[in-house]
Write a structure and sequence with these properties.
34% strand, 7-stranded mixed sheet, 3 helices, alpha+beta
């Protein structure tokens, strides 16, 4: 699904940088809109809107985690990965140095969304300015530049 050489490079770079937790994030797009999830208000960074994302489990590859996390958090099935949208580092709620790898993904059907870990979801257009972190804003800008801008 994702080029093995890219996955190997990302993982090796994270090890070199002493990243303690790998995380995957997805720009789920459908019909010109992108899916965002709202973190629970009583959680780390509560109330913030974010990409569907989650930790890579021990023994799991980045692409396996991407498929699993999107299914767990939204109920959606990924049908393909369009490309890599970069990464960002942050300190998790438990204090771990974390690196989130972000990918543009396609889904078979955007409905129904089945939330398990978030308070709400929304589909946004390129013109909307959602309350997301600067890191997520950069990922969305790169997505729009690569896949929605006229060539």
């Amino acid at each position: 699904m994702i080029d093995t050489a890219l996955l190997d490079m990302l993982t090796l770079n994270a090890q070199r940088d002493e990243v303690q937790q790998l995380v995957v994030g997805a720009v789920v797009h459908f019909d010109g809109k992108v899916l965002l999830l709202q973190r629970p208000t009583d959680d780390f960074m509560g109330g913030l809107w974010e990409l569907p994302s989650g930790k890579v489990d021990p023994g799991e590859t980045v692409d396996q985690a991407l498929i699993r996390e999107i299914k767990e958090e939204t109920g959606l099935d990924i049908t393909g990965v369009r490309g890599y949208l970069g990464e960002f580092d942050y300190q998790s709620g438990s204090g771990k140095k974390s690196r989130q790898f972000n990918f543009a993904v396609d889904v078979a059907d955007p409905n129904p969304i089945q939330l398990t870990e978030h308070d709400a979801y929304t589909w946004i257009t390129e013109q909307e300015d959602p309350p997301v972190s600067d890191a997520v804003r950069e990922v969305l800008a790169l997505y729009h530049q690569q896949w929605t801008s006229p060539r």
